Amino acid sequence: MTDQPVLVSVNRGVGHLLLNRPKAINALTHEMVEIMTAALREWRDDDAVHAVVLSGAGERGLCAGGDIVSIHRDAKALVEADADDAAAAACPSASFWREEYQLNSEIAKYPKPYVAIMDGIVMGGGVGVSAHANTRIVTDRTRLAMPETGIGFVPDVGGTHLLSHLSDGFGVYLGLTASSITGADAVALGIADHYVPSADLDAFVTAIGETSVDEALAAHAQAAPASDLWAQRDWISQAFDSDDVAEIIARCEAHGTEVAAGVAATLRAKSPTTLSVTLRALRDPLATLDDTLHREYRVSLRCVRSHDMAEGIRAQVIDKDRTPAWNPATLDAVTTARVDEFFAPLGDLELTITEPGA
C-alpha cells in the first residue's frame, strides 16, 4: 500500500510511521492524522512494540505543515459570509485541528520511546508531530520553523507552549519572525534532544530495532555543532524582552546591525493583528500542553474567520504576489479589545481532549 499517505509497519519491535506525501513535503491531511492516531493507540498496549519511529518520505523533509490550500478555502468562505464562531467550528479546517491537537497531546504523553526524525524541513504541523516527542532527533539538514505569522495565522499545534518555555527571548523571536532554525540551533534552544548526521539516519533507525533506542543513540548521536543563533542571544534577549510589538521593532532597529535591521523589516511586513495575538499568547504561558492546545483552538477558529489569514495565505501561497493587504494595516490600530476577542471562551464549541484509552 505504498500509495497511502502514511505507511504503517512494525519491524523488530519498532513501529514505523512514514509520512508519505513527498511531493507536498509530507504536509498533513485529516486522513494522515487519523492513520497516525489509530496506529499509536494500537501500539500503546502492544507488548510486541517497544518503540515508535516517525520519519518523512522523500529528500525534502519530515513535514512542511498542514494543507494550506484547503485552509484558505475555508477562510475565504468564512470571511465572505462574515461567519461567527459556530460556522468556523463547523468547517473542515476546524475538524482537522480538533483531531490534530488531540494527536499532539497523545504524542506528548506517549508511554514508549517515540523517536521523531526531524530531518530536512520541519514546519508548523510537522513540529506538532515531532517536537512534543520524548526523543527528538535533528540533523545537519534540519530546517525547523513555526511559520504561521507569515500567513496571518498564530502558532498552533502546541507551538506557543514550546516557544513560551524557551529562554533568552528566543521563543518570542521565533514566534513573531517565523524564522527557520538549524538542527544545531534546535539542540541549543532545547527544541530537540539529539543530533545525528543525516547520512547516519538509516543505520540509526536499524540499530533501534537491533538493540534499543538508548544504545542506538549511544552509537550514532553526536555533539551538535555550535549554534549561530545561540551566539546572538544577547541582542535577541534584549530586543524581544517587551510586551509590545512596536517596542520590539524599535529595539531591533536601534541595535544598529544589519541582522537586527533585517529582523525589524521582517516584522514590519507581517500582519499587525497576528503579531499582537502571538505576542499575547507567548507572554502568557499556560501550565500544560493541553491547556495551551485548548487556547490555541480558540485562536485558530478566530483566525480562520479573520481577514488577515485569508489574505495572508492568498498573498503567500495562492497568488504568490507577496503583497498582503492587512486590516488593520498598522500596529497602533490593533486594539487590546481586538486581541482579547481571539482568546475569548467558546462555550459549547470548546476543544475537547480525551485521555488515551478513555
What order do the helices and strands come in, and which of them pair?
Elements lengths: L5 E6 L2 E6 L10 H15 L6 E6 L4 E3 L4 H13 L4 H5 L2 H17 L5 E5 L2 E3 L1 H4 L6 E4 L4 E3 L13 H6 L5 H8 L3 E2 H7 L4 E2 L5 H10 L2 H8 L12 H7 L5 H11 L2 H11 L3 H12 L5 H16 L2 H12 L17 H8 L15
Parallel strand pairs: 2-3, 3-5, 4-6, 5-7, 6-8, 7-10
Antiparallel strand pairs: 1-2, 8-9
Name the descriptors.
globular; 2-enoyl-CoA Hydratase, Chain A, domain 1; 358 residues; alpha/beta; 10 strands
Describe the model.
With 358 residues, the protein is α/β, with parallel strands linked by helices. Helix content is 47%, strand content 11%. It has 17 helices and ten strands. It has helices at residues 30-44, 68-80, 85-89, 92-108, 125-128, 159-164, 170-177, 183-189, 201-210, 213-220, 233-239, 245-255, 258-268, 272-283, 289-304, 307-318, 336-343, and strands at residues 6-11, 14-19, 51-56, 61-63, 114-118, 121-123, 135-138, 143-145, 181-182, 194-195. Helix 2 (68-80) packs across helix 16 and helix 11 (233-239) packs across helix 12. The protein is globular, with a radius of gyration of 20 Å. The model has no long low-confidence stretch (mean pLDDT 97).
Question: Can you summarize this structure?
Answer:
With 358 residues, this protein is of the alpha/beta class. It is 47% helix and 11% strand. It has a single domain, classed as Alpha-Beta Complex (2-enoyl-CoA Hydratase, Chain A, domain 1).
Which class in CATH terms?
A: Alpha Beta
How many whole angstroms does the radius of gyration measure? Answer: 20 Å
Strand count: 10
The CATH homologous superfamily is termed 2-enoyl-CoA Hydratase, Chain A, domain 1
Mass-distribution shape: globular
Quaternary structure of the protein = single chain
Q: Mean of the pLDDT scores?
A: 97
The CATH architecture designation is Alpha-Beta Complex
Total domain units: 1
Largest pleated sheet = 6 strands, mixed
Residues in β-strands, percent: 5-15%
CATH topology: 2-enoyl-CoA Hydratase, Chain A, domain 1
Fraction of residues in helix: 40-55%
Number of helices: 17
* Strand arrangement across the biggest beta sheet: 1-2-3-5-7-10
> Structural class, from helix and strand content?
alpha/beta
Distance, first to last CA: 31 Å
Order of helices and strands: EEHEEHHHEEHEEHHEHEHHHHHHHHH
